[in-house]
Design goal:
- By secondary structure, the protein is of the alpha+beta class.
- It is about 30% helix and about 30% strand.
- The protein contains 8 helices and 20 strands.
- The strands form 4 sheets. Strands 1, 10, 11, 12, 17, 18, 19 and 20 form an 8-stranded antiparallel β-sheet that branches. Strands 6-5-4-8-7 form a 5-stranded antiparallel β-sheet, with no helix packed on it.
- The relative contact order is 0.12.
- The model has no long low-confidence stretch (mean pLDDT about 90).
Length: about 400
């Protein structure tokens, strides 16, 4: 048979493993072994080495040497015998850890996009809401979880009633990857008088769930059963029925190229990843994080926002397909604006309508989803020293964006 291993060959390979163990014990414990144990160990090692070298050695000889080695290893082996996983693999584990840290620090760093400030170039967490339509079955849920990182949620009660949602949210402790402690936001919905709580990541925008539910409906304010302010939707749910369900899809997970910027500076159009610690106007709650935005101007450039375009040094900006699509407002690119929809703020250095000169060793960064992006318009220029690399490859989920980052 092609994969059959003869008893003699198997015995020889086992003897090679025993010789390796004897050599390791000698290397690590030679100076602490009693003389008689040291002599016995050296004798076993020499006999094994000679037997392995001799092509005529019979199987019975290997088995005898294995038997003779057993009591010697028990006396002299220390932590190496009986064989333990950590003792046997400590060097390999340490090497793998150092290699992983080195790769992450100097070459490729994994990064998960939490928000939709770079949509549609990159996706943060998004929701697929099921209202008035069947939710996916068990097999489809499993497939969507594997390929898209989709986690399924549903809201409903046995009693039924009118759907409402609370105006208040609460930060609660949670788990990330089932192990790491983190914080989540608890949203409370009501079906009739019964509350249903859903805990979601802090970075997720709940409006992605609420807006599809409320499409074509009017909201009526009221006081809930527990005295909190609620909003009634007018959507009535029968006993045991699901009011709505939704999938929470993971944000794009990508590798950041940390190598290239050791040899060249960031270019206009690059999707850059940077630390937030030293951004001049960022609030304390967002320090110590990593952001991804697109570099729209570099040192010495003159920038002016001219919705839906950006003017760089007096000309329409170039350097990325996202610039052109925002200019034309196509493929879900909404165009550049002066400020976010949720917060009307000017540029820190100007009123948002006059040109801004970028200082040396700094960059101006903006999200491709300009109306919903907190960026240099709010917290100022990005120091070049804080830029760690550029988005290189989206490795998960397996959506149409999978592959080289744009």
């Amino acid at each position: 048979m092609l994969f059959f291993k003869s008893p003699l060959k198997k015995a020889r390979q086992e003897a090679e493993g025993t010789l390796h163990l004897a050599s390791k014990i000698l290397a690590y414990r030679k100076d602490v072994l009693p003389s008689e144990d040291l002599a016995a160990l050296e004798s076993i090692a020499a006999s094994l080495k000679q037997a392995i070298k001799d092509k005529q050695t019979e199987r019975s000889t290997f088995e005898r040497l294995q038997t003779e080695a057993e009591p010697v290893f028990k006396r002299a082996g220390g932590s190496f015998y009986p064989r333990r996983f950590l003792a046997e693999n400590a060097e390999m584990i340490l090497f793998a850890a150092v290699l992983a840290i080195g790769v992450r620090t100097f070459f490729l760093q994994p990064f998960k996009i939490p928000t939709n400030s770079m949509y549609p170039s990159f996706n943060g967490m998004t929701a697929r809401v099921y209202v008035g339509e069947p939710a996916p079955g068990a097999l489809e849920k499993g497939w969507r979880f594997l390929t898209l990182g989709a986690k399924h949620y549903k809201v409903g009660t046995e009693a039924g009633g009118e759907l409402a949602f609370s105006a208040e949210q609460k930060v609660v402790p949670g788990r990330k990857w089932l192990v790491l402690p983190t914080q989540k936001v608890r949203y409370t919905f009501y079906v009739g008088a019964e509350p249903v709580s859903v805990d979601l990541p802090m970075e997720f925008d709940i409006r992605q769930v609420i807006e599809p539910i409320m499409e074509g409906r009017s909201v009526q304010g009221a006081i809930g059963p527990d005295g909190t302010r609620i909003f009634k939707t007018g959507l009535r749910v029968g006993p045991g029925e699901t009011a709505f369900a939704f999938d929470l899809l993971t944000g794009d997970q990508l590798f950041v190229d940390r190598f290239s910027y050791h040899f060249r500076r960031p270019q206009v159009g690059d999707p850059i990843v940077f630390r937030t610690d030293n951004l001049p106007h960022i609030d304390m709650g967002n320090r110590g994080k990593y952001y991804i935005k697109r570099a729209v101007a570099g040192p010495g450039d003159e920038l002016q926002i001219a919705p839906p375009d950006i003017l760089l040094n007096g000309e329409p900006i170039t350097g990325s397909v996202a610039f052109e699509k925002n200019r034309q407002q196509v493929d879900n690119y909404s165009g550049y604006v002066y400020g976010m929809r949720s917060q009307n703020y000017p540029l820190p250095q100007a009123d948002g309508r006059t040109p801004v000169r970028i200082p040396d060793q700094h960059y101006f960064a903006m999200g491709d989803n300009s109306p919903n992006s907190a960026d240099s318009r709010m917290w100022g220029f990005v120091p070049q020293r804080e830029i760690i690399g550029r988005a290189a490859v989206i490795y998960y989920p397996f959506s149409h964006r999978w592959g080289l980052a744009k």
